[in-house]
Write a structure and sequence with these properties.
Blueprint (H helix, E strand, L loop, with lengths): L1 E5 L3 H12 L3 E6 L12 E4 L4 H12 L3 E4 L6 H14 L2 E5 L12 E4 L2 H7 L5 E5 L5 H5 L5 E6 L11 E5 L6 H10 L4 E5 L8 H9 L2 E5 L8 E3 L2 H7 L6
Parallel strand pairs: 1-2, 1-4, 2-3, 4-5, 5-12, 6-11, 7-8, 7-10, 8-9, 10-11
Keywords: Cobalamin biosynthesis, Oxidoreductase
Protein name: Cobalt-precorrin-6X reductase
InterPro entries: Precorrin-6x_reduct (IPR003723)
Length: 243
């Protein structure tokens, strides 16, 4: 069976590797934002589809029989296009959705509905660990009354001002690393997306132990689709047999 995975996550790679091992023809589509991604087995396609029409055309031209949305939980546009394309073409869609994180016992956790709301929540003088990727950096950096430690895989395409420190690193991170980072930079607040998963979850435990206030940006809304919270559940939901 020919399967298209909208990827870019650890779980997307795991799904691709499992499906290839089962004998299926798998294409993983990556947005191309990361210059040196860790690639899955099977074919890899890098770059966008050109919107909903392009995705529908690709599904037809390639003879795709199953579609998996295993993108980041905040990749709202491509997830919406996946639902619409599946409806338009009749291709079965399964969305892999990580279970969201929950506050640690005793943790100060503030919910924010947007990047702007998160930036406005920060008090003057805060020392902030930003773990939101490149999204909304300009909005946060406009708060010149705060100091930011920006942790990203790849450097953003904008100058880093004097009130910010850039750290380039790739997850996973363990609890010891996160505790040391928060201690060394005097972190008082951490801004995060509720990405779920295990690769960066240690930052929440570290924040709880360090008394760091967590500001969590809410996930975007999603159109209804078949959802799975584990790789095994996603494989089952695809309703396919081994080749």
């Amino acid at each position: 069976m020919k399967i298209l995975i909208l990827g870019g996550t650890q779980e997307a790679r795991q799904l691709a590797n499992r499906l290839v091992a089962q004998g299926h023809a798998v294409i993983t589509a990556l947005a191309g934002r990361t210059q040196h991604p860790i690639l899955p087995q099977g074919e890899v396609r890098i770059g966008g589809f050109g919107g909903l029409g392009g995705l529908c055309a690709y599904l037809g031209e390639e003879g795709i029989e199953r579609l998996v949305d295993a993108t980041h939980p905040y990749a709202g546009n491509i997830s919406a296009n996946a639902v619409a394309a599946a409806r338009a073409t009749g291709v079965r869609l399964v969305r892999y959705m990580r279970r969201p994180w929950q506050p640690q016992p005793g943790q100060i956790w503030l919910d924010a509905g947007s990047v702007q709301a998160a930036a406005e929540t920060l008090p003057a003088g805060a020392s902030v660990l930003l773990t939101t990727g490149h999204t909304g950096l300009e909005t946060f950096l406009a708060r010149q009354d705060c100091h930011f430690v920006i942790r990203v895989i790849e450097a953003p395409d904008l100058p880093i001002p004097a009130h910010a420190t850039l750290i380039q690193s790739r997850p996973p991170y363990d609890l010891g690393q996160e505790l040391a980072l928060m201690r060394d930079h005097g972190i008082t607040h951490m801004v995060s997306k509720n990405s779920g998963g295990t690769q960066t979850a240690a930052k929440l435990e570290a924040a709880a132990q360090s008394g760091v206030v967590v500001i969590m940006i809410a996930r975007p809304p999603y159109s209804p689709a078949i959802e799975a919270e584990s790789v095994e559940a996603a494989l089952a939901a695809l309703d396919i047999a081994r080749v």
